[in-house]
Automatic annotation (TrEMBL):
It comes from the Bacteria. Pfam families: DUF559. SUPFAM superfamilies: Restriction endonuclease-like. InterPro entries: DUF559, Endonuclease_DUF559_bact, Restrct_endonuc-II-like. Residues 4-110 form the DUF559 domain. This is DUF559 domain-containing protein. PANTHER family: BLL0828 PROTEIN.
């Protein structure tokens, strides 16, 4: 399956946390930044991307707690950062239980990128 087909499937089958964050960032609702979701970058598909700020937001579920998954996440982060992106990660719980705090971190990161 192509990365574009994978991205389309991921957009259609998003998690609750991804859907919640999308409602908060879509349509330039957050710091007037345009976000896209499930964007192919290199061999990966990033959850959310603001191209103008070179910012990637990843939402991690419980599977990312396993040691093997954490090692893969480190590799993924290194590859995405090698393309010039800054990457921030939130857990599903953070997005669902503290969306205001998540938005504060995103806004602060966007402001720093624009400075």
């Amino acid at each position: 399956m192509s990365r574009i087909a994978v991205a389309r499937r991921l957009r259609r089958d998003q998690t609750h946390a991804e859907a919640r964050l999308w409602t908060l960032v879509r349509g330039r609702r957050l710091a007037d930044a345009k976000f896209r979701r499930q964007v192919p970058i290199g061999r990966y598909v990033a959850d959310f991307v603001c191209l103008e700020a070179r910012l990637i937001i990843e939402i991690d579920g419980g599977a990312h707690d396993a040691e093997e998954a954490q090692l893969k996440d480190l590799e993924r982060t290194a590859v995405l950062e090698s393309f010039g992106y800054h990457l921030i990660r939130f857990s599903n719980g953070q997005v669902l239980n503290a969306p205001g705090e998540v938005c504060d971190v995103i806004v602060a990161t966007l402001r720093a990128a624009r400075a």
